[in-house]
Amino acid sequence: KKGDGDNDVVVVDDSDGKGDDDDSDFEKVTPKKTPPKKKAKKKAEYECEKGCGFDGTFDEVTAHETICSHVRDEFEWNSDMDEEEEEEFLAKWEESVEKRHGQQADPPEGLLMTLLPFQRESLAWMSEQEQSKFRGGILADEMGMGKTIQMISVIMKNRAQMSGGGAQASKGGPCKSTLVVCPQVAMVQWRGEIERYCKQGSLTLTIYHGPKRISNADELAKFDVVLTTYAIVQTEFSAKFRDAKVACPYCKKKYFPPQMTVHHKFFCGPNAHKSAALAKQQKKLPVAE
Length: 289
Description:
It comes from Hemiselmis andersenii (Cryptophyte alga). With 289 residues, the chain is mostly helical.
């Protein structure tokens, strides 16, 4: 076979001398078929990309249905939930997503800039998310879309009004402070945007970094925003919990207690509910003598 593209030339060696009229040298080639499961997966991925706008379009209905479908397929359910509880949980989650779709929130008092419509929509979603049963989320706007100012807005919007400035923090009680963990270079951006776009005194800030940082939890709890870096969190976490890991009695690997619970539940030990793929993978491993 010579050449590239659709106009390739196929050279056939007619070595038996029978000429072009004999097709005995040709072997029928059947095109390789894509397995049904793989084909369905590729179709689902394409529909997801199309619905979520990765091909230059955006279909809100398709995107919503795709996201809900992925949540149903990929969510690792708590084993304490029966089928009826799982279905009720999913129905409430989908209803909450549909209910909040398109809603916009008024910017918080003390913010000195005008939020764009999509920023007000994300503010409404994040504010309600913090108060709902389904807490947590990801703000995944592209670079330059104003993620920092959106987060500052939600901090100001849902700031806890606590007497005493959150003095219960050292005892594990509620605290008004928001901990922001980011790269060191991003701390400059956070501080700059708070100083520029927030009314003076409306949002207090401290930077938890460097040798002179405040180490008292009650003092830190008096600030609305505490900025720190990944390196600081990693260092202090490792120093505090380095002796907290315990060894698994089956595989001898060390985990923190919460991780050990998951490890025994799904991966290791006689009572683990292993997935079919994991069980097949472990079956192929050589048995130690």
